[in-house]
Amino acid sequence: MTAAAIDFWFDFSSPYSYVANDWIDALAARHGRTVRRHAILLGATFQAAELKSPVSYPIKREYSIADFGRSARFEGLPYELPATFPIPTQNAARIFWWLHDTASPQAAADWAHAAFRAYWTRGVLLSDAAALKALAAESGLDAEAAEAAWNDVTWKQRLKAENDAAIADGVFGAPFFMIDGEPFWGNDRKAQIERWLGSGPF
Question: What is the pTM for the complete model shown?
Answer without folding.
Answer: 0.95
